[in-house]
Design brief:
This protein is of the alpha/beta class and about 375 residues long. Helices cover about 30% and strands about 15% of the residues. The chain has an 8-stranded parallel barrel with strand order 3-4-6-9-10-11-12-13, surrounded by 7 helices. It is globular.
Length: about 375
């Protein structure tokens, strides 16, 4: 009995397994953050591939909250309609539930795409004003953000709420707030980027106030029967940055507000970061948080072997495994993991005949040749 392929229910949504396709920024939207056929193909292939949950890319709640000119957005009707087309397609033909990651880049906005160097845009390249908890840039060579005042913080919070309402109308099953990778909510959390002297800066309790306010507002607007989680960068990989102990305090506070899961990642906040990577390198942080709270935890970070993933779930280190690059490399990873672990998993109707049990000779599952009446069966 595989734990990786066991079902789990979050509020009114039951996921058929513990495999999650992590959000992947594509930087390919048309116009002002509008999804198109690329996203239909990109997300559709993962929806077919039997993960329990597939996330859209980070979807930004405002124009100035985008990382790049070509990031996905959800602040107007055109964006909502385009997203609904993609989500409807995935729901009709795929086997996965669909999630969205709502984001605001804060001081890391207004940049080139990673393929083009990921450096800040110039005025000639239509750069825009960036904002943050403090007037502290990501790097000395980057834009200096404008410190958000109370009206600005209220506006951003409302933008998160409005985007969540649009996501619900578009048919999204699970929503997540992006509180990691150095984006706005992460910037409030970390002492490296939050230098405020008011009630939203200084102590950990104060630095958590705004991210918790945003979560509480979105939870109130998001349908009661649909899960809402948060991605957290547990550590900054820079001396003096956030710690796993800070993250546990954060996760407990979210749990008290009705959060349904936390997705534990690391880094992205400061250009001085020095990250030690390797297979499953972020799982220990997820495990530490999982031991301290009573809600599900998602683990991410070079988890690409079926037995490795099974062991993470079976040992209680996390409740879900997430994959991005691994899924790009093998969009059918969940099918292959199920075969490796000796279990059956979901296949889209038109692809059911690809199950190993339907053509066992190809997989060495039978010793003697069979006689069949129709090779198309």
């Amino acid at each position: 009995m595989s734990q990786l392929f066991s079902p789990i229910t979050l509020r009114g949504i039951t996921l058929n397994n513990r495999i999650v396709v992590s959000p992947m920024c594509q930087y390919l939207c048309h116009g002002d953050g509008v999804m198109h056929d690329w996203h239909l193909m990109h997300l559709g292939q993962f929806a077919m591939g039997a993960a329990g949950l597939v996330f859209t890319e980070a979807t930004h709640v405002s124009a100035i909250g985008r990382i790049t000119h070509r990031c996905a957005g959800l602040w107007n009707d055109e964006q909502e309609a385009a997203m609904k087309r993609v989500i409807d397609f995935c729901g009709e033909y795929g086997v996965a539930k669909m999630g969205i990651q709502l984001a605001h880049a804060g001081r890391k906005a207004s940049t080139h795409t990673p393929n083009d160097g990921a450096q800040p845009l110039t005025e000639a390249e239509n750069a825009w004003l960036t904002v943050g908890p403090s007037a502290v840039p990501y790097d000395p060579s980057w834009h200096v953000p404008q410190q958000l005042d109370r009206p600005g913080m209220d506006q951003v919070k409302q933008e998160f709420v409005d985007a969540a309402i649009r996501a619900a109308r578009a048919g999204i099953d699970v929503a997540e707030l992006h509180g990691g990778h150095g984006y706005l909510l992460n910037q409030f959390f970390s002492p490296l980027s939050n230098h405020r002297t008011d009630e939203y800066g200084g102590s950990l309790e104060n630095r958590l106030k705004y991210p918790l306010e945003v979560f509480e507002a979105v939870r109130a607007a998001w349908p009661e029967d649909r899960p809402l989680g948060v991605r957290i960068s547990a550590i900054d990989w820079v001396e003096g940055g956030s710690t796993v102990e800070d993250t546990i305090v954060y996760a407990k506070a979210l749990q008290d507000l009705g959060c349904d899961y936390v997705d534990i990642t690391t880094a992205g906040l400061d250009s001085r970061q020095a990250i030690t990577v390797g297979r499953g390198y972020q799982v220990p942080m997820a495990h530490a948080v999982r031991q301290a709270i009573d809600m599900p935890v998602m683990a991410v970070g070079m988890i690409n072997d079926p037995q490795q993933a099974e062991d993470i779930i079976a040992s209680g280190q996390a409740d879900f495994i997430m994959s991005a690059r691994g899924m790009m490399y093998d969009p059918r990873w969940a099918w292959h993991a199920a075969h490796a672990l000796g279990v059956e998993t979901d296949y889209a109707d038109q692809y059911r005949r690809a199950r190993p049990s339907r053509w066992p000779e190809a997989f060495g599952l039978v010793k003697e040749p069979r006689t069949v009446s129709d090779q198309r069966a």
